[in-house]
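Methods, example record. To illustrate the input and output format used throughout this study, we show the complete record for (apollo) hypothetical protein. The sequence lines were provided to the predictor; the line carrying structure tokens was produced by it.
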Amino acid sequence: MKKKLCSVLFDEVALTPHLTYDESQDEIIGFKDFGNEREFKLCDHALVFMLKGVCSNWRQPIAYYFCEGTTAAAVVVWILKEIITKVLQSGLIPLALICDQGPTFRTAIAMLKEDTERKRNLNGEYNGK
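The corresponding predicted structure is encoded as:
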């Protein structure tokens, strides 16, 4: 059980805009790409996600998204919910989200907390206040 406990780490890193042709996929890489939505805008950042064991010494990059400028907090929330769903489906147990304290990530975490409190209140659970 302890081997399944993990943290989700994420960060946004600056990139030098550059286009590359991927022959195997027959596509050009380097445009803004959130998986379900691709725009022909040069990306200058990447949003990167990784899992790290809490009680075990393992880590695994699991996703990255090319973006233009800072990613909106609502998009970060959507991606985090997708990732956490997939992590839970894999049998791993995410215990924490770890990121820097940039304004976008602070807003995203606040949005997740509000969403959780709203759902708990709708279910009649005590919210700790």
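Annotations derived from this record:
The mean pLDDT is 90.
The first strand starts at residue 5 and ends at 14.
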